[in-house]
Design goal:
With 317 residues, the chain is of the alpha/beta class. It folds into 2 domains: 31-169 and 211-302, Vaccinia Virus protein VP39 (Rossmann fold, 3-Layer(aba) Sandwich), CATH 3.40.50; 174-209, no CATH class. It has helices at residues 9-14, 30-34, 64-81, 106-116, 138-143, 177-185, 224-232, 245-254, 270-277, 289-294, 311-314, and strands at residues 16-19, 23-27, 42-47, 82-92, 121-129, 152-159, 190-191, 197-198, 214-216, 260-263, 281-286. Strands 1-2-11-10-3-4-6-5-9 form a 9-stranded mixed beta sheet, sandwiched between helices. A two-stranded antiparallel ribbon has the order 7-8.
Length: 317
Amino acid sequence: MLDTRVLSKAEFDARKVYGTWWGSAYWGDSLELLHHVPDKSIQAIITSPPFALKTKKKYGNRPPNEYIDWFKGFAKEFRRVLKDQGSLVIEIGGAWLPGAPVRSIYQYELLVALVRECEFFLAEEFYWFNKAKLPGPAQWVNVDRVRVKDAVTTIWWLSKSEHPKADNRKVLRPYSSAHRQLMRTGYNQGRRPSGHVVGMHFAKDNGGAIPPNILESANTSWNDNYREFCKENDLLLHPARFPKEIPEFFIKFLTDERDLILDPFAGSNVTGAVAQSLKRKWLAFEQDPDYLLGSIGRFTSVRIPPSFRAPHLSGPQ
């Protein structure tokens, strides 16, 4: 369990960096900030926490041997603030063991701990396929040529109950031309070798195709205002931004308009910006003030508040 102090209401309010009609962004340790989130108030937590990489990153990643215990400290609070039909969505990449072309299994160990120890249910596993991802690690892929490009990231959709709120009709995809042709000409009905029976209902137009649990996005630049804003204000770009298509899919799938969404590892606040565009309420927590200030560039009506003082200016917290 992590050691945290309890913030007073005044201290919590002072951590607010900016807000819109739809949401608010707070700077600080999200475990401290979570204490001020009411029980059963959040419909979905959608986040990309720091990965357990062997190289230390500015955004505060933990090594694999500490990662599970570190994350379990948050899981108890996540479960408390989620509604009974709420969801926890974690985009979490893999890692390589030091000095060898073999993989860590920390993200799978985390999944087991969240289910067996923290009382979450695994609703479904998803995979983000980034076809534009650069080959890496370079030593194993480009030099020794003993591994292929690692282009898939795991996403765990966990839930507080066995029946979380979800509706795949909100994330239907356009039918392919081949599928539309089949609906016009009709399926070859009957029992397949697999045992499935194809009936007349397969030709029904349901408004789109049900998506698979593989989400494809190239993670190319989104929201040029964000990049320009960071450059103009001498703020660091967050190096591990995930594409808007990831939170967009889960926000549509798992929530309704005006539901409250939380990202406790907000980074450049992609989740909050997408939630707002979809008319959802949002909360964003981020421990690095530079990243949080940079995220203001995602919102056209927000400016850097002159009253906000970053930790390196305001002294010990």
